[in-house]
Amino acid sequence: MKALVLTGTKQFEMQDVTTPTVKDDEVLVNTAYAGICGTDRALYAGLPGSADAVPPIVLGHENSGIVAAIGRNVTNVKVGDRVTVDPNIYCGECEYCRTDRPELCDNLSAVGVTRDGGLEESFTAPASVVYPIPDSVSLKAAATVEPISCAVHGVKLLDLTPYQKALVIGDGFMGQLFVQLLQAYGVHQVDFAGIVDEKLAFNKEKFGVTNTYNTTRDSIPADYDVVIEAVGLPQTQEQAVEATKKGAQVLMFGVGKPNQTFSMNTYEVYQKQLKIQGAFINPYAFEDSIALLASGQLDVESLISHEVSLEQVEDVLNGKVEHVSKAVVKVSD
Ligand SMILES: NC(=O)c1ccc[n+]([C@@H]2O[C@H](COP(=O)([O-])OP(=O)(O)OC[C@H]3O[C@@H](n4cnc5c(N)ncnc54)[C@H](O)[C@@H]3O)[C@@H](O)[C@H]2O)c1
Ligand SMILES: [Zn+2]
Ligand SMILES: [Zn+2]
């Protein structure tokens, strides 16, 4: 079968490899779609994602497909089921796993990061991370359940309630997911800040965003109960804290560079009693994400800007394909 193998930093090779066989607790998935995100860009460039990827490795931690075989102990899915896979595999034995914070696991492994993922025609995963999807959810949409789950995890770390006014900073795929998620979680007003006027207008029209700000020219009032930063730059992190009113919560979702810092007025952290919250990956969020897609509360297909082939993946990662908002790879039918 065909596999796009990362063989070194910024090096891919299309290889003909043997289809993997399942262990007793594993599922073999024929990949339908694999999503590409900033983590893949980092791994391609030799930087760590949620964990280190050591070549040769097949990336593709966001994926969907059809179950092709199951190990003898597997009972949660059967051959032919349409599924999506949570890439993150927790050890269950470390301090964090044993205190209900598995995302902070000291021994995290992940499909498409530390073991082969969806950028090949078939891959295996432990049955415990394989989730069936309902007929109403397309395989293309199902390939985005992993990033949706990261956003759902972020939202669950906040105390959300209908009276709140929220601001999302960042007009990428994740920011646009957060707009819809905050609405689905009942927040009555969601505003949106970015740098691409078309995306700001699109979110106003399609998702009912109230106010939009282009951060290159508009100032943002200090008026928000909830601010989600989904860019990862020092200036947007500063803007996120500055946009708060008293009692506000800030979700620092964007990923900065490892040594990045930003400044904030610490007197205001005291005087406004701010909560500043990080978010790492996506524990216990797949069921909610699938339900949000199935109920139509989340529309992801209109946010997918590119559908590409395995042969085009490298050009997406190295930037030759421009204006990518969200790309999914169609691996097989
Ligand atoms: N915490 C997690 O578990 C987790 C999971 C997934 C993604 N992320 C992070 O979330 C962030 C967003 O992800 P994405 O996939 O949407 O990334 P992306 O690169 O596709 O989007 C970033 C967006 O930010 C916008 N932007 C750039 N400068 C801006 C500015 N000054 N003001 C406002 N908007 C600006 C860009 O127009 C772009 O649309 C990234 O940093 C990503 O690494 C975190
Ligand atoms: Zn991802
Ligand atoms: Zn652990």
UniProtKB/TrEMBL annotation:
One of its GO terms (molecular function) is oxidoreductase activity. Keywords: Metal-binding, Oxidoreductase, Zinc. Residues 8-329 form the Enoyl reductase (ER) domain. The keyword Disulfide bond does not apply. CDD domains: threonine_DH_like. InterPro entries: ADH-like_C, ADH-like_N, ADH_Zn_CS, ER, GroES-like_sf, NAD(P)-bd_dom_sf, Zn_alcohol_dh. Its cofactor is Zn(2+). Belongs to the zinc-containing alcohol dehydrogenase family. PANTHER family: L-THREONINE 3-DEHYDROGENASE (PTHR43401). This is Threonine dehydrogenase related Zn-dependent dehydrogenase. The lineage of its organism: Bacteria, Bacillati, Bacillota, Bacilli, Lactobacillales.
